[in-house]
Amino acid sequence: MMEEVIRVLGVDDEEGMRLGVQRVLQGFVLNLPDLDTTLRFEVTSAADGESAIACLGSATFDIMLLDHKMPGLSGLDVMAWLQERREQQSAEQGEGAKDFEPLTIMVTAYASLDTAVEAMKRGAFDFLAKPFTPAEIRSVVRKAATHLMVQRQARKLAEEKRRLRFEFISVLAHELKAPLNSIEGYLEIVRSKSAGDDQATYDRMIERCITRLQSMRKLIMDLLDSTRVESGTKPREMTQINLLEVAKTALETVQPEATARGITLRLPTETPVMIRADAAEIDIIFNNLISNAVKYNRDGGEVEVALYERDDKIEIAVRDTGIGLSPDEAAKLFKDFVRIKNRMTKGILGTGLGLATVKKVAQLYHGDVQVESQPEVGSVFRVTLAKEEVKP
Amino acid sequence: MSTAGTNKTILVVDDDVDFVEQQEIQLKHAGYHVVTANSVAEAEEVLLTVQPDLALIDLMMEHVDGGFVLAYRIKRRYPNTPVIMATSVASETGMEFEAKTDDEKSWIKADLLLAKPIRFEQLKRELDRLLGD
Known about the structure:
A: 392 residues, alpha/beta, six-stranded mixed β-sheet, B: 133 residues, five-stranded parallel β-sheet, 43% helix, globular
């Protein structure tokens, strides 16, 4: 539970009113369980509009209880001053100037609708009619404080989202630049012939360039998959899909690489497993898990795909006899751009987006992906999906 | 590129296998003896048996500051081995490092920082300077 202090400015020319507000709010504790926050209140008092403006100019307040009818500047005059300052600041700093302004609760003895309407027009959050009971003050302050906290929470979430997006783009830029640097490096050597006269050396460099270009294209394709799944912009076409057929096709795709490295591919079932799903999304799951199982396997190893139906769920399990993962590595595996770098993965190209996208797809089907693994023995990746169509 | 005929040993360390390969090809062609490693751990193993005349290492390996750690360890074991740190950090994150002032040298245990991509002529010039050829 977080504790926060809400600073309140009470403006009234009647001393009794100022003391009343102070007494009621000083000991007031407001629990907001939904926001996991407890609020306490700290009250500053001002006896007229002029000193209210002085206070507002020198400190920041969260809530202002503002009396309208005062000798000298009225409550509405104070609001007009705030409005003017707001306009001036937003001209200078753009959006965000309002952040330093208290939520204003207009207090008026006549409960005149005109004053209330005028105050609302000038940006007041609420109004309170004199005479009021302690319960009424607490109620109006509770409403304002809750509004304030919800607003701050929303802003925090928006900032977090911006930060994540920035981070994603930074890493993406790095991942796209790495192959470019590498290809440029090889081409420079070819251009300056600084590798001597052996043609075989140059042939090898050109092969590497092609490999890096292919991996760059793969990154872009994976990126498109990932953003498509995440943004939900692509209309999903839900049809009846036989997972057995999808598994067979995905295995056929990796067969050449598996054969070259003596890896056996197994799908020990002929039972159709049906699910209502989007075909492109299901392809993402099978293609990523199966190509990983081959890529991170040992030569002469094995890949086995199994499909299970239990109750309202379907499980896809892909087992390999590969390099495996430590618990630390497994814990971060499903995040964007995470690639496990160690002696065993050296030289294996990947984008670090595949498993993160598999997880996003699984979540679209109210499912998840999990890994059980033992270093240098192998891993099993299990994806569960809800059988019935789930509206995103 | 002429062959310099030097038999100085250069240690090249980077987790990018292509970067290592490119430097190795060019350095060998220029007449250097080259040993390579793809991680800080691998480099430390190499250092047990090889005393390089110069080390060319990447900044970001395994951890963001893997290169700093390795530079420190090289200097502790072989205080006279110059270390060149290659980095693409500045252009990607806006972070900049330089090893010019005494204060910077006191914590960056590298003799020179080079921004990637590195042109070989530039690297060769710095090698000649640091190796006193």
